[in-house]
Amino acid sequence: MDRDDRRESHAPEPTSGVIEEVEVRGHIVDSLLLPKILDRILQMGGTFEIRECKIGARRVDPSYARIAIRAASAADLDEILGDLVEHGASPVDPEDAKVEAADISGAFPDHFYSTTNQRTQLRLGGRWIDVSDQEMDCGIAVDPVAKTARCVPMVDVQAGMPIVVGHDGLRVVPTERPREASLFGFMGSGVSSEKPKAVSLQGVADSIRATRAAGKKVLLVGGPAIVHTGSASHVAQLIREGWVQALFAGNALATHDIEQAIYGTSLGVSIDRGESIEHGHEHHLRTINTIRRRGGIKAAVDSGLIRSGIMYECVKHGVDVVLAGSIRDDGPLPEVITDSIRAQARMRESVKDVGFALMIATALHSIATGNLLPAWVKVVCVDINPATVTKLSDRGTFQTVGLVTDVEPFLRSLAGMLSVL
């Protein structure tokens, strides 16, 4: 059986139908992108013929493939092409993107293009332009005068806003995993409790240093377990030494951090002795009440009431803090944003220029943040529960490296590594 016969035995070509040629470029072989594209064509009921394929001679050289796709109908072909856009395939003879004015505020037109977190380009006036503010699960708004395009969340749509519909004139540039041996290399991704911890820690420290050297921000997304496990001092050290520029958390982390600064407890448990204090269960509520009476966290720091901890260092070093509330919050603290849509907007603004995100022991805030980050932002998620890091990847933040480990030794070691010049 020759090569053509083998191909046809897996993908018999119908004698009728419609055909469209697409092309795909980059490291499509070693990243398994090309096999994935061919497999998707077959899964969706189409057939293919590889009409041109050039494989890069060296690891750094890109490859190229031109593929003819046949489907039974124009509708079937359009569905296949729409799916392949997300994998980096684009028509050989592209048209301009189709744009339709939003008929109402707060909703996209029917058949809007739903974005991914990968770098996206749009064809406008015969030219390819980059889509800015890249984010998954958004639409694309076009400014036909300025010749620009940007991702826009559904709630920000205004009636009359030009929105991209369909898949014509769009192409996605898949983010390529580094092929060198590193924490973020192809074999280094995924979730495991059996990875060498020292190697993983060094990879995180190196990435944070590289991010700061490139002038990008480091984002820390944290849950209250940071305080409960006695790790607040390590995070405070990272902030004090300039390794963290943005902090996303909820009411709980800030409250228990301040509780520790005032009472020496977290949820009424002594951080030093690890035992419950009499009437300690009241400490978190009394902490919130005290801060509300002082007018907020910054006012409490400025007055000398708060003299240590994560929130203290954030105020002293100008860290951009976004505290997003939940339905179960006590108080909450004055700085907590209780409107989820407004909290998302603040987070969107803050993630600009973020080059590295470290997510520690918080499923809800980690997933929410991952939804806002473009695919080229490196993400490390640390949690004792493997499900947390798995959920983050499953919900689209595929660039996540998950480390299943205790929070306190991880943060203590990381702070120590970064303190070494």
Query: Can you tell me the CATH topology of the largest domain?
Result: Rossmann fold
Instruction: Compute the number of structural domains.
Output: 3
Gross CATH architecture of the largest domain: 3-Layer(aba) Sandwich
**Helix amount, in percent?**
25-40%
| Average pLDDT over all residues | 89
What is the overall number of helices?
14
Structural class: alpha/beta
- β-strand percent reads 15-25%
Estimate the global geometry from the Cα principal axes.
elongated
Strand order of the largest sheet: 12-20-19-18-13-14-17
CATH class call of the largest domain: Alpha Beta
Specify the biggest β-sheet: 7 strands, parallel
Instruction: Report the strand count.
Output: 20
Radius of gyration: 25 Å
> What name goes with the CATH superfamily of the largest domain?
putative lor/sdh protein like domains
CA-to-CA gap between the ends?
Answer: 62 Å
> Unreliable stretches, pLDDT < 50, 5 or more residues?
1-14
Task: Describe how the helices and strands are arranged.
Elements: H1 3-10, E1 18-26, H2 33-43, E2 47-54, E3 63-71, H3 74-85, E4 90-91, E5 98-101, E6 119-124, E7 127-132, E8 139-143, E9 148-152, E10 162-165, E11 170-173, E12 190-192, H4 197-213, E13 217-222, H5 225-228, H6 232-240, E14 246-249, H7 251-263, E15 265-266, E16 269-270, H8 283-294, H9 297-302, H10 310-316, E17 320-323, H11 340-351, E18 354-360, H12 363-370, E19 378-383, H13 386-394, E20 400-404, H14 407-419
Parallel strand pairs: 7-9, 12-20, 13-14, 13-18, 14-17, 18-19, 19-20
Antiparallel strand pairs: 1-3, 1-4, 2-3, 5-10, 6-7, 6-11, 8-9, 15-16
